[in-house]
Write a structure and sequence with these properties.
With about 375 residues, the protein is mainly β. It is built from 3 helices and 19 strands. The protein has helices spanning about 135-145, 265-275, 305-310, and strands at about 30-35, 60, 60-65, 80-90, 95, 110-115, 150-160, 170-175, 180-190, 200, 225-245, 255-260, 285-290, 300, 310-320, 325, 325-335, 355-360, 365.
Length: about 375
Amino acid sequence: MADYPKEGKTDEIPNFIQFTDLASEHVGGKVLFATDDFFAPAENLLKKHRPSYKPKEYTEFGKWMDGWETRRRRTPGHDWCIIQLGIQGLIHGFDADTAFFTGNHAPRISIQAACLQNEDIPNIPPRGTKLGCAATAEEFEAIEKLESENWHCLVPMEELKPGYSGSNHNYFPTSSHQRWTHLRLNIFPGIGKSKSMADGWETARRLDRPPIIETDKDGVLLVPGSEWAIFRLAHPGVVTQIEIDTHHFKGNYPDTCKLDGCILTTPEEEEGILQKWHLPNVKWKPLLSVTKLSSNKKHFFDSVALQLQNVITHVKITIAPDGGLSRLRLWGFPSSICLLRPSERVLSSRRFPVIVPLRAMSSTFKIT
């Protein structure tokens, strides 16, 4: 078995790592549900031993990995699993270990928690051997009864580091003073860097620009017109952070952009498409006011929806006067409301301190 890949500096070890790992299989922790286990099953997250790597070992589905590894997602939503703690108790922190996942680790995670009684747990089909599988419709139907998307958030969406030696441990302290019995671990796919301008959105030059360009007192171009695009979110929710990336767009990036959101039902969306989005009754709410952009750069903004707690289903990005963007990313919290048709919904005491190790997406997941 191979050693950890070498790169990066050694992680600082937090104090909570000395506490009991409440999620470990050694104390009875188990996985109740996972959306996908194609390359490696979620049960690996809870192993008590250090992650290992076997360079020459493969399964019928791909490279053998000592962690949880889902297939590359090509459908709306994200992957997640439900973990029943072996020992219920206070959680002081998490250790998400991405050991050996250096190019295929989950870019981001979030963690939710609940304190459930036995009678709260639905009859979930046994997981059995899950390699090469995704959750069945029967499993989704059973786990939906937990309404885990509404559980308390202990760790908001955070980025994970790749699994090189010295940086594979991703520590997340928590300040919760409540006893927990179950966790929902969410892993979020990466959109990835654009490879070139062709791997992005670029509009044609507007021909109605004046011969000589002027700006206002804030440096915004005084030109007519703009270009826009509308997207349906994978899940209704509140947008808290916005990333707008102009990577590769050095001489043809937009001068400014703005972002708005709204709630639309499926019939309203269909009507919008038919009417080419000339819908006077749709009330767009501002997420980002008119903002100057720079060339070849990632821009990060806090959404005004965070203060307003506006739930949205669709966003409209407007660029002026024209140009190109490589990526648009919207971070936030999903809402339990769903306005799509049912067929379109995404199936989606004594106290102990806890550590939870996460394995790959991470290779291990520890809770303390």
